[in-house]
Amino acid sequence: AAEVVLDYLLARAKPPEQIEAYTRKTILCTACHTDAEAIEAGLNALRLLGLDIPSCPTEEDIQRELQRVRSLLTPDRLDAFREASQPADPRTRQILALVAHLIPPASLCNPALFRYLSVFMAGFSLEEGYTEYAPFAMACFGAFLSGDPMELPQVDRLQQLALELAQKVEAFVPQYRVYYTIGVYMNHWHRHVSSNLDFLQKCASEA
Fold first, then answer.
1. Are 147 and 62 in contact, with CB atoms under 8 Å apart?
2. What is the rounded CA–CA span in Å between residue 164 and residue 11?
3. Within 13 A of 107's CA, how many CA atoms are on the CB side?
4. Whether the model pTM is above 0.85
5. Quick one: pLDDT at residue 130?
6. Could you give the angle at the alpha carbon of 98 between the alpha carbons of 92 and 100, nearest 5°?
7. pLDDT digit string (tens) for 111-161?
8. What is the mean pLDDT of residues 175-195?
9. How many other C-beta atoms can be found within 10 angstroms of the C-beta atom of residue 15?
10. DSSP letter string over 59-93?
11. How confident is the model at residue 169, as a pLDDT?
């Protein structure tokens, strides 16, 4: 019933309201496990915000995004990112919120999009400035890199950065996704697997 109402609103609403309706549809479809519909709605919302994310990124798309993010991971930029006290503008926050909502359904039914978004979110955060979604962005990028043994020192640094940034978050954006990503995908590569339980317990308490 809720999805019918959202579709009715989408057919009649103006762009600002459409963005909100698409966002809610993304969340609803993810909860109902209709992941392809969740992805379609989220990408439509991003297009209305002026961002055209490919629905089926190629390996070339992913590698190009990866190179962009690597160029942004400079000590000076990371220091400024850590010390930022003012959140980025509302459009940036909307975009990052949508990407955060898209990552779970993409991880279940669109592996290429999942990998692309995990890299894109980190790069967009570093370019546009700190938001409450920055900890999750850094954790996702660390998870992306964790499959390469040569990247494990960087994975460790990104894990520490994600945890540091999570402590700064004051807005009502639960950080359970950060702790889940670290506990499932990152921590065991450079620490004893038993310490994963600490992060998974934090995830459960925040969720």
1. no
2. 43
3. 13
4. yes
5. 86
6. 100
7. 999 999 999 999 999 999 888 999 999 999 999 999 899 999 999 999 999
8. 91
9. 10
10. HHHHHHHHHHHHHH--HHHHHHHHH--S---HHHH
11. 79
Q: Return the SS3 of 132.
A: coil
**pLDDT 10s digits, 24-50:** 999 999 999 999 999 999 999 999 999
Kindly state the tokens that stand for 48: 């209305």
Mapped to the 3 state alphabet, what secondary structure does 85-107 carry?
A: CCCCCHHHHHHHHHHHHHHHHHH
Are the CB atoms for 116 and 65 separated by under 8 Å?
yes
Span between the terminal Cα atoms of the chain, in Å: 26
Give the Å distances, CA to CA, from 6 to 3, 104, 207: 5, 21, 26
Which residues 6+ apart lie within 8 Å of 202 measured at CB? 176, 179, 183
Amino acid symbol at 200: L
Nearest C-alpha neighbor of 166 from the set 79, 158, 105: 158
Is residue 3 pLDDT above 70, yes or no?
no
Instruction: Classify 14 as helix, strand or coil.
Output: coil
- The two three-digit tokens of residue 91, written as one number: 């459009």
